[in-house]
Each structure stands twice: as C-alpha cells, then as structure tokens.
C-alpha cells in the first residue's frame, strides 16, 4: 500500500486475496486521494475542458458546491400572484364602497363588543360541553355494551342529520312542549321541579343547542383519535395492571389528543361561526348586533359586515395559534424533535440567510 | 398430570406459575389444546416452537390478556382472572371437574393480579408520550405500590441496572430498539413481579442490538428471577434455560433441560424444528 494512491485502483496491483474483504478498502482514505491526484479520469473530458475555460484551476469535486437548479416557472408564477395580491389590497384600500372610516367607527362600538362577548360566551360553553359530551358519546360507541353503542350511534346519527338551525328553533319552542322539568325517580315522584320558561333563557337555549350539535361531531373526532392509538398501548397498560381510569386518562387519551386536536380545532372554528345562528333565537351575538345595526343604519351595512368579518378572522386566528402550541405540546415523544415555534423559525431563517450571504460573498 | 400430583406439588413447593389444561380457541381455530406447565420459583423456562404453535397465546393466557376457554392458570397458588365459587371446603379440591364453578374476577382484581406478572412485548409498547423515567415510574404510582418520589428513585436504579441511567429524560422514540426494550424490561421490573414473561423480546431488533437485551435478561436469570421466555434465539435458550418447552400445534410436545430437548430431542417434531433453526 506504499504505491502512489492514484495507481492503486487502476493497476490492480493489490494482492487479489486482500482486495476482496469489503469493509477496509473503500473508505475515504483511498477515494479522496484518487480525486486529488488525478481529476481527469473522473470528470468527462469535455466537461473538464469547459471548466478550464472559465476557471483556470478546477477545484476538486469534493470541494465544490452544487449549483441549485434555477426554476424560472416558479419565479413567473410568484410574480403573477404578487401582482394579483397587490391589486386586491389596493382595491380594498381605495374603493370608497368599503367606507373604512365607518368601519373604524363601528369596530369597537360597545354594541358590537357586547355581541362579541355573547359570541365568545356561547362558543366557549358549547365547545367545552360539546367536547365533554363528545368524549362520553365516543366511549359509548366504543363500549362493549350493545345498548350504549346503539344509543350513541343513534344520537350521532340524529344530530348530524338535523340542521343546527332546526335544533335551535326546536329548543326555542321547547317550553311549549314541556312546561316543567323535574329531577326525581324516572316515571316516579319528582324531587325538584323547574319552570322551563324561566330556566330556558336565550343563552341557555343557544348553548344547549350548539352543544347537542357539537357533541355529535366531537364524538366522531374523539373516537377517531382513540382508535388511532396503537393496540399495543392498551395491552401494555393492562399488562402493567394500571387502573382502568388511569389507562384512559394518562395513557390512551393523551396520545389520542394528538390526532384529536387538529380535527377538533376544525370543529371549533365551525362552531365559532355557527354561533351566528343564535341570532334566530333572539340572541344578539356578534353577527346579530351587526345585523340589527345594519337594519338601523342601512348605509353602513358594508362596513358593518367588514367589522363582523374582521372579528371572526381574529377569533379564528387566536384559535389557530392556540392549536399550534397545543399540537406542539402533544407531539412530545411522538416526534424526535419538536416543531419550531414561529419565533424559532424566524431566528433560524435569519441565521440561514446570513450564512448564505456570507457563502455567496466568499465564492 | 393427575389431580393428586398437582396437589402434592403445590403443597411441597408452590409453583410460581401453574398452567393447568388450558384450551384456547378463536371461533373454530384451536390455538391451545390442553397445555399443562409448571414453572418453579427462580426457574427460567424457554418456550420454543414454530410460528403459529401458540407460544405467544400461552404467555398471554398466563397474565390473562387472553381468557382460556377451558383450564386455569395460577400464580403462587392464586388463580388468575377467576376465583372459586362456593363452599370453602372446596378450596382443596382440584378443579379438574370443578372449572365450571370458577367465577370471573372483577376487572380491577384482574388488573391487580396482572401487576404482579411482568410482561415484555416484542414491540416494546413503551408509552411514547412519557419520558423513560415516567414509563418506568408510572405503574408503581398508579397501582398504589409506591409514592412518586420513591417510584422515581426505584426507576432510576432500575434504569441504571439495565445500563440506561443517563437516558431518564429521553422519550422512547429517541432511543434505539435495544435501548427501548431495556426500558421495557425496567418498566416490568418496577412492579417487583413474581414472574416476568418475555414475548419474543428480540424479534423486532436489528441483529447487532440483540446482544444488549439478551445480556439484561441473562442478568435477571442469574439473579434468581422467575422467567418465562418465548424466543427464537436457540443459543440463548441453551445458555439461560433451566427448562425448554417445545410447543407445536397448541400442545407441549416435549420439555426438559436444554441438554435433553436441544441435544437429544425425543420427538420427531422437535428434531425437525431444531434442524431448521439451528
């Protein structure tokens, strides 16, 4: 092995018996000297001559950087999209039709903010109650009892089939069907009796209606999440003798949440927008306030709709940001490294850009 | 095994695990057809057999992950998953004709029994959302055996015993397969089980990782822990087993010390199997 490195490969002077064992001969110790000593046999002849035209001393291949492929189509598409976006932004800003001054006037009016509070209240209660109901229904669907399975299935079937607005209007007129509600022995004496018309305020009707509807959808989301947990996890948990409640609360459900979160947030965003239907059970939520102000000030209908749009956008954005962090939290252990937060991404982006500029400058 | 034998055995030296005439079937598919097996305390039993012979099912019947259709399993003389129903005077009577009088235990009671039987899975089945330390410390806390600080102390010492004292804060997916399986063994040990069952503990591992897991199991075997191991590592079986059990088509074909079963198999099926795997 004392021969010049370039000839060791081509001449084949190495003893044949020694040449066969694979692990030793290949590593960099031999491959690199070959390219240093004689670049020509590796590079094609015409490529080598081209290189020598532009660059008097061709660098060894191992020291070269690969030039990224240029993609003109992508650049054109980017430019077209940017122009379109600019046009839309310009139109939004300059078209007097939008009346941005009236928008600014209405955006934080107390009447609108009161409506926003109602929207938030109804959405928050329904989201929590809907999720709890959904978990119970999902457990019912996964139960070994055929009765629980059937009842859960029928509930989900029913409330996914009936439009939310129908459910709300039905509940609104519920007090006409059942004058009083009571707690007691089924089919027997009652201990507590409630007057329905006093109990069923508008907000209660709205929350109950949305929760009933939400639970049906949440149940399927939760069930899907639970099913996505590997059977081995159930087995390991029961082989360790973990109590049943602990198995669900600490082993299965946290893992299911990783699959549940994106789907449930989807539901949640739908729910926030569905709250606009409570207007029909005479509750003045964000949309309701906008609607009633719009009929009082017909000239301001467009800025008022913009007010509603922007507030719904803000709510959805807040939910999406929360979603990111919740998902990040529940991906612990499921991925080797956690996805970076937007701040970390920004820092890494700046770092990369700086490094790239320095590299380009050096070449 | 006759009834008188089983009583005298259990009086003389209570078997750590006793499997008595266990039958298990799924629909018309018969998986176990009358398996009798006695594992004495401190003994290392290795179960060999072709795939589909019912090895894994037998292990899963022992810790009641599967219910036997007929027969019973007992751990240190206590029935697993069932209890004898009726008069106290029946306690001494072997249930050869009395299995019909066995009553299923409550889920909670079965879980308590399982916590005394360690189980190590082929695919590790660690809890991916918990750190290595929490994987090991969770069960003693959840079953009320220890309080959290003590459980974590125990988990740390078990993890250093399996050579992973520096990985306590890692999540399972950040570890190699061999390391994960060693965590799984530590997790099983944390409940101080009377017996540990291994279901092909090295079958999901890259060849170069098999050794580290087998070393840990060997360490347990020499320290006097009762082990029942299903494996395909014949060399390992010869090294650690006090007894080899050869299972085929749901029946025990032959059993005995490795020198007999591996070197002088009496049964044609055993010879055939060994000629294929050796």
Architecture overview:
The complex is a heterodimer of chains A (363) and B (278). Chain A contains 17 helices and 2 strands. With 363 residues, chain A is mainly alpha-helical. Chain A has a single domain (94-351), classed as Orthogonal Bundle (MetI-like fold). In chain A, strands 1-2 form a two-stranded antiparallel ribbon. In chain A, strand 1 and strand 2 form a beta hairpin. In chain A, helix 9 (164-172) packs antiparallel against helix 12 and helix 12 (202-227) crosses helix 14 (244-274). Chain A starts with a helix and ends with a helix. Helix content of chain B is 36%, strand content 24%. Chain B has helices at 3-12, 55-62, 107-114, 132-142, 148-161, 177-189, 207-222, 234-240, 258-261, 268-277; strands spanning 17-26, 29-39, 44-48, 70-75, 78-79, 82-84, 102-104, 117-120, 195-199, 226-230, 243-248, 251-256. Chain B is built from 10 helices and 12 strands. With 278 residues, chain B is an alpha/beta fold. Chain B is globular. Residues 1-12 of chain B have low confidence and may be disordered. At the A-B interface, helix 13 and helix 14 of A face helix 3 and helix 4 of B. Chain B: Residues 17-274 form the ABC transporter domain. Chain B: Keywords: Amino-acid transport, ATP-binding, Cell membrane, Membrane, Nucleotide-binding, Transport.
Summarize the SSE layout with pairings:
The complex is a heterodimer of chains A (363) and B (278).
Chain A: H1 5-11, H2 16-19, H3 28-37, H4 45-54, H5 72-94, H6 100-107, H7 110-141, H8 146-161, H9 164-172, H10 174-177, E1 180-184, E2 190-195, H11 196-199, H12 202-227, H13 231-239, H14 244-274, H15 286-296, H16 301-330, H17 342-362
Antiparallel strand pairs in A: 1-2
Chain B: H1 3-12, E1 17-26, E2 29-39, E3 44-48, H2 55-62, E4 70-75, E5 78-79, E6 82-84, E7 102-104, H3 107-114, E8 117-120, H4 132-142, H5 148-161, H6 177-189, E9 195-199, H7 207-222, E10 226-230, H8 234-240, E11 243-248, E12 251-256, H9 258-261, H10 268-277
Parallel strand pairs in B: 3-10, 3-11, 8-9, 9-10
Antiparallel strand pairs in B: 1-2, 1-4, 4-5, 6-7, 11-12
Helix pairs in contact in B: 4-5, 4-6, 5-6, 6-7
């Amino acid at each position: 092995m004392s021969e010049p490195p370039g000839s060791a490969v081509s001449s084949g002077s190495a003893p044949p018996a020694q040449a066969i064992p694979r692990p030793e001969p290949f590593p960099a110790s031999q491959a690199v000297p070959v390219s240093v000593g004689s670049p020509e046999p590796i590079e094609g002849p015409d490529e080598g001559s081209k290189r020598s035209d532009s660059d008097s001393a061709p660098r060894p291949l191992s020291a070269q950087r690969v030039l990224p492929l240029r993609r003109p189509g992508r650049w054109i598409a980017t430019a077209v999209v940017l122009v379109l976006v600019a046009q839309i932004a310009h139109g939004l800003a300059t078209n007097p039709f939008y009346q941005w001054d009236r928008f600014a006037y209405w955006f934080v009016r107390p009447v609108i903010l009161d409506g926003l509070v109602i929207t938030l209240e109804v959405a928050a209660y329904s989201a929590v109650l809907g999720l709890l109901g959904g978990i119970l229904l999902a457990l019912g669907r996964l139960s070994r009892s055929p009765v629980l399975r059937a009842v859960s299935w029928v509930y989900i079937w029913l409330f996914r089939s009936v439009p939310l607005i129908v459910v709300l209007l039905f509940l609104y007129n519920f007090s006409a069907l059942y004058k009083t509600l009571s707690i007691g022995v089924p089919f027997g004496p009652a201990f507590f009796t409630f007057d329905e018309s006093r109990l069923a305020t508008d907000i209660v009707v709205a929350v109950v209606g949305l929760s009933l509807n939400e639970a049906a959808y949440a149940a399927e989301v939760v069930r899907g999440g639970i099913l996505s947990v590997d059977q081995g996890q159930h087995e390991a948990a029961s082989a360790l003798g973990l109590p049943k409640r602990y198995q669900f609360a600490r082993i299965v459900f946290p893992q299911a949440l990783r699959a549940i979160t994106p789907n449930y947030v989807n539901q949640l965003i739908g729910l926030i927008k569905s709250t606009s239907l409570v207007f029909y059970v005479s509750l003045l939520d964000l949309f309701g306030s906008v609607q009633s102000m719009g009929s009082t000030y017909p000239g301001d209908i467009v800025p008022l709709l913009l007010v509603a749009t922007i507030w719904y956008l803000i709510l959805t954005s807040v939910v999406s940001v929360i979603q990111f962090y919740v998902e990040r939290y529940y991906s612990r252990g499921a991925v080797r490294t956690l996805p970076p937060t937007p701040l970390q991404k920004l820092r890494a982006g700046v770092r990369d850009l700086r490094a790239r500029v320095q590299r380009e400058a050096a070449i | 095994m006759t009834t008188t034998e089983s009583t005298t055995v259990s009086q003389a030296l209570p078997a750590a695990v006793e499997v008595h005439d266990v039958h298990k079937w799924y629909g018309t598919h018969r998986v176990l057809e009358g398996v009798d097996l006695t594992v004495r305390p401190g003994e290392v039993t290795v179960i060999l057999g072709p795939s589909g012979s019912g090895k894994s099912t037998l292990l899963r019947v022992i810790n009641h992950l599967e219910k036997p259709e007929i027969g019973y399993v007992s751990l240190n003389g206590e029935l697993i998953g069932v209890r004898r129903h009726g008069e106290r005077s029946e306690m001494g009577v072997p249930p050869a004709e009395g299995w019909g009088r066995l009553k299923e235990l409550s889920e909670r009671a079965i879980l308590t029994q399982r916590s005394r039987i360690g189980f190590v899975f082929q695919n590790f089945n660690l809890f991916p959302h918990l750190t290595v330390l929490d994987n090991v410390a969770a069960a003693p806390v959840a079953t009320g055996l220890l309080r959290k600080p003590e459980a974590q102390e125990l988990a740390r010492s078990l993890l250093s015993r399996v050579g992973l004292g520096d990985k306590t804060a890692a999540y399972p997916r950040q570890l190699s397969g061999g390391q994960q399986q060693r965590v799984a063994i530590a997790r099983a040990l944390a409940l101080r089980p009377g017996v540990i069952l291994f279901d092909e503990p090295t079958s999901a591992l890259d060849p170069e990782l098999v050794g580290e897991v087998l070393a840990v199991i060997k360490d347990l075997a020499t320290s006097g822990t009762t082990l029942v191991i299903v494996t395909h590592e014949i060399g390992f079986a010869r090294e650690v087993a006090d007894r080899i059990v050869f299972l085929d088509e749901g029946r025990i074909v032959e059993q005995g010390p490795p020198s007999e079963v591996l070197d002088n198999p009496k049964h044609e099926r055993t010879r055939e199997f060994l000629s294929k795997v050796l």
